[in-house]
């Protein structure tokens, strides 16, 4: 049996201390405080790095929608004429008429460190003074979905950096998980859900990646796999320069409930049986799809070898009871749980997820579940 609860919600964010307050006087609200990275500090406490998606209370003014954008001189509001955009999804708008699909965000995301007790059941402190906000032009529409991996005594954090320039992965490093150094872009355009292994198989850094595209080649009908976004792997001598693995990684199997797409969830951690990774699979339903958490086991010496893949029975599913107290804030049409962090807690694992793209959820899972 797992043990679940919401640990941090939009109501827990003090927007008076938001980095956007330095430039934007107009009222904003927290669209979501979700998809947190999770790691254990040297003190024994846990750290959630929470993605705070901050949006304008009045996103449309007159005949223009407005997007928040970071600049070196402060945050600005960019107008987009409503006749030239589609706002059917509350998370973004589509720009009509271009030669290529283009989108704008209805919120800007920044990262908020939230320190928890060692068992993950209480909040010790919310570190607004250590919040991480955009710092470069390739992040000017926000930084999203962090993952933290402790490796050889240092902390490595990957984030999705959003901008009109590109949509890639940036790397941060830290000695204590509070003071972070931006190392720059490490994966280029539209590569999401990059997460580093918590260790070095073969003496190299390894990572899960997920390159995206508008077109995918079809598998033969008897191959057993579904075409589309899947989890690949890459290795690096220094965590900065990455070589994609020639072999495929974890692929969606045709006929499974996650056949729409799969993507990395938690940084892989080493167990006696191999590298344990939790990942998300998406079932087609309406526009967003149903997100669930599954798990796989990779070979400890050659992570390209998938030893086991559990994609039939979900490990974690969205739970309406968790979000019932804040149900008035829900905006997604389908159930979504997006798992993003894991730490060892003796006989169990403490797992962090984003629930409904809205709040931070903690799940305690006995290790016997992975027998």
Automatic annotation (TrEMBL):
Stored PANTHER family: GLYCOSIDASE (PTHR34106:SF5)
MF-aspect GO terms: glycosyltransferase activity; hydrolase activity, acting on glycosyl bonds
InterPro entries the record matches: Glyco_hydro_beta-prop_sf, Mannoside_phosphorylase
Family: Belongs to the glycosyl hydrolase 130 family.
Superkingdom classification of source: Bacteria
UniProt keyword list: Glycosidase, Glycosyltransferase, Hydrolase, Transferase
Stated name of the protein: Glycosidase
